[in-house]
Amino acid sequence: MERWEQMIAGLPLPAANQKVYIWGAGNTSVLNHQGMLRERLYEELRLTAFLDRNNAGTVLNGFPVLSPEILEQQNPEDVYVLISTANSWVYSEIARLCREKKIQSCFLDAVLLKLRKEQFLKTAELLDEDSKKLYHKLIEYRISFHEDYSDVYAGDSYFGIPAFCKSDHRDVIVDCGAYVGDSAERYLWRMEQFKKYIAIEPDEANFRAMTKRFQRLNEEWNLPCGKLVAVLGGTDAYSHRIRMETRVGGLGSIARDDAGADAGEIKFWAIDELMPEGFTFLKADIESYEYRMLQGARNSITKYHPRMAICIYHNMLDMFGIAQLIHEIDPAYRLSVRHHSYGFEETVLYAY
């Protein structure tokens, strides 16, 4: 039995007569949304509402956001609070408040892990032996708010294993969530040989910054026209337009159906439609849209068998769901996991 299995063994799940609230209506709950929908966990948990002082009176993921003071009006035995945060201090403070009110509470990721335990174990069996050990440790670290990931740090993202450190003049790279073109520049320095690099970014400010970077790189590297291609937009399971909620500095900007009226609409493509001529390498860091992007790339993956480096850390459910989706699309893929930061971010699944 893995250590994380022992940690969740005695974890009580919400009872049928309890009202279930998710405390935290910020970025963590936004990132959780796609996985929660996919696994029908809002229904399974019988969620009543979100709780959040800063966002009370709004709606998140189709549920009302209420002030935590509403708990004062309820019998503590009739309430179960799931704490949704990536911050250990925030978790500890909310857990303390619940204890003082004699309300049962638990870290949301731990409950999701218990509810889908068999799926996590199934995904571990799809990985190579080194990745399997790392995967179990990353799950343990995540649900315990482990602070120092230095023992699992594997260097630069997207170059974590030898198969991804080789260059070929025929390579066509599709970069989903290209930010300001930083990965493209790193690719230039490390690989040099490739046919085309298509960088897709939905945040308009990031896109402008990336365009300027590409102009500089074209001059400095004397690149032919069309080798670096910047695309304003996003990727999804199908092509459509959607509102973008942008963040200060462009980090973590995310597509949301319930984004405010001031959010601008951006075109999102299915990869199969955007890249009918195929590609050899697919990279994605797109704020919990990775699973949906892969659904929209199903035909390309089957036909061209590209190498893929896909972020799986944005929500707990992607830690098992993305590997299983790739295996279902093409069982021939070998799957490895590497971690590329000293915190919980930047866990990447490599498929090749």
Question: Helices and strands in order, then pairings?
Answer:
Elements: H1 3-9, E1 19-23, H2 27-38, H3 41-45, E2 47-51, E3 59-60, E4 63-66, E5 79-83, H4 88-100, E6 104-107, H5 108-115, H6 117-124, H7 129-143, E7 172-176, H8 182-191, E8 196-201, H9 204-220, E9 228-232, E10 234-235, E11 240-245, E12 254-255, E13 264-269, H10 271-274, E14 281-284, H11 290-295, H12 298-304, E15 307-311, H13 318-329, E16 335-339, E17 347-351
Parallel strand pairs: 1-2, 1-5, 2-4, 5-6, 7-8, 7-14, 8-9, 10-13, 14-15
Antiparallel strand pairs: 3-4, 11-12, 11-13, 15-17, 16-17
Mean pLDDT: 94
What structural class results from the helix and strand content?
Answer: alpha/beta
Outline the low-pLDDT stretches.
none
CATH topology of the largest domain: Rossmann fold
Overall form: globular
Terminus-to-terminus distance: 29 Å
Individual helix count: 13
- Beta-strand content bin: 15-25%
Query: Helicity, in percent?
Result: 25-40%
Q: Could you state the CATH homologous superfamily of the largest domain?
A: Vaccinia Virus protein VP39
Total number of distinct structural domains: 2
